[in-house]
Amino acid sequence: MTNIILCGGSGTRLWPISRTLMPKQFVKFFDDKSLFQLTVRRNSKICDNQFIVSNAEQYFLALDQLEELNKNNNRYLLEPIGRNTAPAIALACFSLDAEEIVLVTPSDHLIKDEKEYSKVLKKAQNLANENNLVTFGIKPTFAETGFGYIETISLEKEDVKAFHEKPDFDTATKYLKSGNYYWNSGMFMFKAGVFLEELKKYSPKIYESSKKSIENISNSELIRIKYEDMINIPEDSIDYAVMEKSDKVKVVSSDISWSDVGSFDSLYEELPKDEKNNTINENLINIDSSNNLIYTQDRKVAIIDIEDLIIIDTEDALLISKKGSSQKVKKVVKRLNEESSELINIHKTGYRPWGSYTVLQESNGYKIKKIEVKPGKRLSLQKHFHRNEHWIVVSGCATVTVEDEKFILNPNESTYIKAGQLHRLENEGKLPLIIIEAQVGEYTGEDDIIRIEDDFERN
């Protein structure tokens, strides 16, 4: 069995913790483990292989976190742009044997009852072996408007009557009272070939364009879909493209202590709490306050006489909300989008395949960063049009290329790179390289970069 792990999505409902370049599945919420790591660890007990579908930026985050788990024998499929779940699953299935059973899971869900989960998967596997498309239903415990629903004849049977999109509150309440609806978990199991047959029958354009995209690939271990191929694949979810239309769909009731951790209210329910029902945080000072979700990493947060609040403190943004209203965070993200704010894309600290950088200070005309380069890694050979750069080595040993010159910088040594000059930073040592970079110029945005050569095949 192969676990297809879908890593798409930016988790905007958990902003400002979750950003486009650090989505919620890679944030380490639970005992210094991310939801992605928990997904891999949980499913690797049952599945023989992991097949990770992501974009290029998330690929490098996945590599780092899999290395921490010492799980390095995985396959990857990289999408240049997202086209929703049906194409993502189709591209992966085209890369597998038709008889291979696949377990399709999001990378950002929490499942706490792993013993029951194992039983549920075995039941689903039996149905998949009979050429069914299996989905996993979660019995609803309240009228949730953030999930899709699966309608059945009764919760005791495996036949699916219909799929329903996220309802309004009144409709969700009716679903709950009727007793024959599940929450749609977004997990599936089937033979790769059976899924592709149903996709060809009900969504032939997705089938044909996905098939063509895979045929244009030469590397079977790291599959990079070409942009011009990906853009030609129609965008659609697996529910719309196949599951709502096929007569081979079965649902398995899954009482597995499941959560999609899709809002701060649901995150609050999953985090450990103190005697006053505040989430535990070593930087929290609590005076007579209770039932609060407090998230802070570096700064002390003191709360006095407050109840039922969500307080999310990051380096560059602060969110305060009443509990029960956290679904409205998406309205904040929409407003930031309208302002073209970088706050939805990246934190002060950004992660790259070669290491990371932290913006220490920024104003009109300049930006100061701390850059850390992993041993044996190097940045792209690049140039900038709108800024000059000053590099000062703090620790480690830097190998620097500027135009045709290559030289070494030791701690306390520095160099200057003029706008337009071709340059590269490299760490040939065995310890992390840390430098301070001062950018000076009319524009210091991250998109002022022309990559001439890149070890990681980024554009």
UniProtKB/TrEMBL annotation:
Coiled coil: none annotated. GO terms for molecular function: GTP binding; isomerase activity; mannose-1-phosphate guanylyltransferase (GTP) activity. It catalyses: alpha-D-mannose 1-phosphate + GTP + H(+) = GDP-alpha-D-mannose + diphosphate. Keywords: GTP-binding, Isomerase, Nucleotide-binding, Nucleotidyltransferase, Transferase. CDD domains: cupin_PMI_typeII_C, GDP-M1P_Guanylyltransferase. It comes from the Bacteria. Residues 342-454 form the Mannose-6-phosphate isomerase type II C-terminal domain. Residues 3-276 form the Nucleotidyl transferase domain. Its EC number is 2.7.7.13. InterPro entries: GMPP_N (IPR049577), Man1P_GuaTrfase/Man6P_Isoase (IPR006375), Man6P_isomerase-2_C (IPR001538), ManC/GMP-like_b-helix (IPR054566), Mannose-6P_isomerase_type2 (IPR051161), NTP_transferase_dom (IPR005835), Nucleotide-diphossugar_trans (IPR029044), RmlC-like_jellyroll (IPR014710). Pfam families: ManC_GMP_beta-helix, MannoseP_isomer, NTP_transferase. Residues 283-336 form the MannoseP isomerase/GMP-like beta-helix domain. Transmembrane segments: none annotated. GO terms for biological process: GDP-mannose biosynthetic process; polysaccharide biosynthetic process. Belongs to the mannose-6-phosphate isomerase type 2 family. This is mannose-1-phosphate guanylyltransferase. It comes from Malaciobacter molluscorum LMG 25693.
